[in-house]
């Protein structure tokens, strides 16, 4: 993977295998993080690794378009062509038809047969339970009924556990079960959850089946990773960009991301061969602190995303994140990114935190301090088994092979999708 060139013009390259142990790109505002992360995504595609990029701001979606050929340095033209030949962009728009509309209903819950490859029955039961707990938690956060959320989660978990799961579970089945839990054999319901809270939960859930809030659960095609990661032709590599900006509010974005991360985890443990050793997917999330903040704050997608970072490497799902400040993102997540690219730093505390990463290795290398005030686009990288010659060497990210511009509005996305003939089935 060609990341860029050092001051002497020598290429700086990274083995795609390191994607498996996750990458973080750190740097002050405007230092070139998104640019660098896009280089990594492009290089992953060129290496045959499908990409799933989450685009809450509207500045990743432009990757669907090639950078104009005259803007590419001649020495990089062959690589630029290779990317255009290989990448197969899909613009996914939950809740709207600006791109390919995505739908979260029916929900995917793990069936016993899907988990049968996990030989240890105790582990199998834990995975199954963990997934149901996560789906229950996502739904409770979406409903935002207030009251005793812990009881609501416990109750919904019991419901999900008992619903027949061989066929897909529709949201309306869950509403029916919450309304009449006795039918599922849940006794002493009142000891699990107050009647008034259960009724409120049923009413709220029902608003996602019908009415204006139903957008995430209706229309379009069902979220299906097997489908999303399958190229339309051999040799192509899917670039899936999930554009969240057509959703009306942050709660919907948070919930969608939580549901997506939960489903990605289910897909991973039920369909991916953990022994294959390759990189099956690069999951890219910019501005991680909005979703996985440090400290006690727990936006809905935080737990599901942390689980992707802690478990993904086993299944060859590499994660890539950007952040302005290493202090602002959950430490478990940082602890789980073994590749770090450090751009310009501004705050002295950021330099300190970056230094902390290296204390286990015998103290911070001298280059860390020099990151303060480094130029835009300049990075120093560190990854496992990096060639010694690259240690501490600053380099500039290469020219992007796709477009990088200000945020695209939903209408702009629609136009680009239509012009490129990227409408999905039925769109
Ligand atoms: N390697 C590079 N070569 C040329 N220009 C670059 C490079 N890296 C960054 N830039 C320029 O710097 C601008 C800011 O980069 P980018 O959007 O990646 O920053 P950022 O760190 O993600 O900023 P923010 O914190 O606002 O998200 C880009 O629009 C681009 O013009
Ligand atoms: Mg950015």
UniProtKB/TrEMBL annotation:
InterPro entries: HerA_central, P-loop_NTPase, T4SS_component. It comes from Sorangium cellulosum (Polyangium cellulosum). Coiled coil: none annotated. This is Helicase HerA central domain-containing protein. Residues 6-251 form the Helicase HerA central domain. PANTHER family: SLR6007 PROTEIN (PTHR30121:SF6), UNCHARACTERIZED PROTEIN YJGR-RELATED (PTHR30121).
